[in-house]
Design brief:
The complex is a heterodimer of chains A (117) and B (113).
Chain A (H helix, E strand, L loop, with lengths): L3 E4 L2 E4 L5 E7 L6 E7 L5 E8 L5 E2 L8 E7 L2 E6 L8 E8 L9 E2 L3 E5 L1
Chain B lengths: L2 E3 L4 E5 L4 E3 L2 E3 L4 E8 L5 E7 L5 E3 L5 E5 L4 E6 L8 E9 L6 E2 L3 E6 L1
Parallel strand pairs in B: 2-12
Antiparallel strand pairs in B: 1-4, 3-9, 5-6, 5-10, 7-8, 8-9, 10-11, 10-12
Classes of the chains: A mainly beta (117), B mainly beta (113).
Amino acid sequence: GAVVSQHPSRVICKSGTSVKIECRSLDFQATTMFWYRQFPKQSLMLMATSNEGSKATYEQGVEKDKFLINHASLTLSTLTVTSAHPEDSSFYICSARIAGGHTNEQFFGPGTRLTVL
Amino acid sequence: AQSVAQPEDQVNVAEGNPLTVKCTYSVSGNPYLFWYVQYPNRGLQFLLKYITGDNLVKGSYGFEAEFNKSQTSFHLKKPSALVSDSALYFCAVRSYNTDKLIFGTGTRLQVFP
């Protein structure tokens, strides 16, 4: 149980286009999902916390207008990278917390590798 | 502010030998501590966590970690390493009053046959 999927797993796009990444909790409901970014050989940096039905909370330094987050249901959150540029190339990972659960554990998706040409 | 330190970028160990991957933390209040493993181009897999209770926590794949409050450490250990344990390991901390996980910089474990 507690499986999180991401789609697509890999995407290559041209500079200036927008890319949408989906994060789904497959067998549980998640009121809270998190979006992370990981640069090569570096740690995960939290970008934003996404709560179902409300606006996402962005970390300092993350542009909310560039990284649009929508958490419209208890099983789906999306991250849209708008007007992507090569510096946005990275590995994006989402995680989800079980709604109403007692555990503090986050379950991570497999990640999406974005390459902007 | 919360922080996690993993002082070693890489740990090399021979198969069959014990391994230790170090982690120290700084957090206000009682910490929630986690270890995750990441294989190439994959997301993070949960290994184990400490919330409360026994200081020695046992997790997946034979890994364990010991919470040491006085030394603010949560080192990951395994009695006998396998080549398949070779991966990137992340320690993470979360304060009791926040949702956010703060990750260390990661330690690459290389187990040689």
